Amino acid sequence: EFYQQSLALHPEDAGLNYSVAICLVKTHQAALAMPHLTKAKKGGLKDEELAYYWGASAHALHQFDVAIDSL
What we know:
By secondary structure, the chain is mainly α. It is built from five helices and no strands. α2 (14-26) runs antiparallel to α3 (34-42) and α2 packs across α4. The model has no long low-confidence stretch (mean pLDDT 95).
């Protein structure tokens, strides 16, 4: 609920979107993480694990080419 309220106030915040995406991946909702990962990436977020979460989300969406390219 905290993240939902924060996103309502700051929908383009890269770090916040990344945190939401991580939570979604770790709670087996990886397919819902891609929009948040996209905002994090476009917002300039740099994290060495971003590729992992991007790949996990793409895999959940059956976008296997995208998942492989994230490696």
